[in-house]
Design a protein that fits this description.
The chain has 136 residues and is mostly helical. The chain has helices at 3-30, 36-54, 58-75, 83-101, 112-135.
Length: 136
Amino acid sequence: MELHQMLSDFRTESFERIDSMERSLLYLANTPGCGAALNDMFRAMRTLTDSASLFGLGGVVALTRAMENVLVRVCEGEVPSDESLLTLLLSCCEHMRTLIGQTSSDWTGSPRWKIETTEDELLGRLEGYRLMASVE
């Protein structure tokens, strides 16, 4: 299989995983707690992390790991799954779409500097939630 086809398959599967993560987050908004929806999300994030690392997409790997760290604390009851957190996690999903979209030769999205700024901001906000759990 040539690289172009592998990247195409990666994009398709990654977008499906992100869709699954978003559905889980929307379900979590209406049904707090660590149940099947979050377990599905953890599986999707781990698969996405593994696949993204194969293609050198460090931003996707960093975001999924940071999201997972915060969601573990949600499951442990250390961080509330409030609207602000869910909005942040949905923003992370959207940003991962952008990062993965760059692997397409016809991608016409945001310039690289804007993507890196957004990524740094999202990672910083996720770290704030992780630290909140450590302090309380």
